[in-house]
Specification:
This protein has 336 residues and is of the alpha/beta class. It folds into two domains: 6-182, NAD(P)-binding Rossmann-like Domain (Rossmann fold, 3-Layer(aba) Sandwich); 193-327, N-(1-d-carboxylethyl)-l-norvaline Dehydrogenase, domain 2, CATH 1.10.1040. It contains 15 helices and eight strands. It has helices at residues 14-25, 37-46, 68-72, 87-94, 119-127, 143-147, 161-170, 184-207, 210-231, 242-253, 258-267, 272-278, 285-298, 304-315, 319-327, and strands at residues 6-10, 29-33, 62-65, 77-80, 103-106, 134-138, 152-157, 176-181. β1 (6-10), α1 and β2 form a beta-alpha-beta unit. Bound molecules: nicotinamide-adenine-dinucleotide and SN-glycerol-3-phosphate. SN-glycerol-3-phosphate binds at residues 109, 140-142, 195, 198, 247, 250-251, 257-260, 284.
């Protein structure tokens, strides 16, 4: 990869920073945009991100700024890594600054509340670009492991194969192996719904329900994700891939997952407010469980695990009652 490829990353949280590091290691010149000038200064002066990835040394070719126009200038790829529910307002401010012909890349795993739009749809809507200029990077990518340069595979999804291949080349390193996939809908749904299933598995873990419960939730969670995907025109095989099963396994088995940890705290008996208070970073499933359920209802799809997570997180249903209700639904064949 030629160093003349330029990438802007909007969001200097854990994944924005780690993915910026991947791009820099792959040979791109990278500018991170940080909301706070102090964080941008700290990245530039210490070559670390002390707030989100303490102890990780960042490459020389990665720098940070708090000025959006400076980050956006001449970027071949404009990467978006802010919490999903803030994307619309943020991108509205950044859109006039974007380099002409830049490819917009979503790292976000959420569904917008109210509109039920996927993040790539929000990008198209707000930036006024065609879907051939919007790509998604997703898969089993816990930021802390990637920042330690531990090996992982990922998916680069774009309807335009040439764009997907360009981005694939721009982020391919010895420790980060991206595959292309034209199924943007399936890849984004896989990423957004796995956060909801990650909450469910965390709750079960917190309650001490064991590994059979975990295996059952992962599998039936994937089944309800696939049902929604089919109703929305996704390729069902996507859900057997990195954006589906791969990400579910990583999220549901790792203490590094914010969604899994959030669920575990709820399952152990913390209240929602107590759990929010101890959660510093973005656990997308907490908000997206409501928009995913909304999406499911709009498409007439049954998603009992998602419904259960919404009931526990937002309606105060005690986890013990929710488990009893989930298990006593009427019996049915596995493939329905
Ligand atoms: N962390 C991971 O392992 C990981 C991996 C893959 C995908 N993702 C996804 O990437 C997205 C970003 O997650 P993250 O892990 O970087 O989150 P994070 O909580 O670590 O960082 C979020 C960043 O957004 C900024 N931010 C928060 N509110 C904002 C606002 N209103 N306006 C502008 N900026 C704001 C924060 O200052 C921070 O820089 C999420 O959708 C997440 O699901 C995360
Ligand atoms: O920490 P989480 O739960 O947001 O998960 C991080 C990544 O999405 C795992 O692929």
């Amino acid at each position: 990869m030629s160093e003349s490829v330029r990438a802007a990353v909007f969001g200097t949280g854990s994944w924005g920073t780690a993915f910026g590091m991947v791009l820099a290691d792959a040979g791109c010149g990278v500018t991170l945009w940080a909301r706070r000038a102090e964080l941008a200064d700290a990245v530039n002066s210490t070559r670390t991100n002390p707030d989100y990835l303490p102890g990780v040394e960042l490459p020389e070719t990665l720098r940070a700024t708090a000025v959006p126009a400076e980050a956006a200038r001449d970027a071949d790829f404009t990467v978006l890594a802010v919490p999903s529910q803030t994307l619309r307002a943020n991108l509205a401010a950044w859109a006039p600054l974007l380099a002409p012909d830049t490819v917009l890349v979503s790292l976000m795993k959420g569904v917008e509340l109210g509109t039920t739009m996927r993040m790539s749809e929000v990008v198209e809507d707000v930036a006024g670009v065609g879907r051939d200029r919007v790509a998604v990077v997703t898969g089993p990518n816990l930021a802390r492991e990637i920042a330690s340069r531990m090996p992982a595979a990922a998916v680069v999804a774009c309807t335009d194969e040439t764009v997907a291949r360009r981005l694939q080349a721009a982020c391919h390193t010895p420790y980060f192996r991206p595959y292309t996939n034209p199924d943007v809908v399936g890849c984004e749904l896989g990423g957004a719904v796995k956060n909801v299933i990650g909450l469910a598995v965390g709750i079960a873990d917190g309650m001490g329900l064991g590994d059979n419960a975990k295996g059952s939730l992962i599998t039936r969670g994937l089944a309800e994700t696939t049902r929604l995907g089919l109703a929305m025109g996704a390729d069902p095989l996507t859900f057997a891939g990195l954006a589906g099963l791969g990400d579910l396994v990583a999220t549901c088995s790792s203490p590094l997952s914010r969604n899994h940890t959030f669920g575990t705290n709820l399952g152990r008996g913390m209240t929602l407010q107590e759990t929010i208070a101890v959660t510093r970073q973005t656990a997308e499933g907490v908000k997206s469980c409501e928009s995913v359920l909304d999406l499911a209802r709009r498409h007439g799809v049954d998603m009992p695990i998602t419904e259960t997570v919404v009931a526990i997180v937002h309606e105060g249903k005690p986890p013990v009652v929710a488990v009893k209700e989930l298990m006593s639904r009427s019996a049915k064949p596995e493939r329905h």
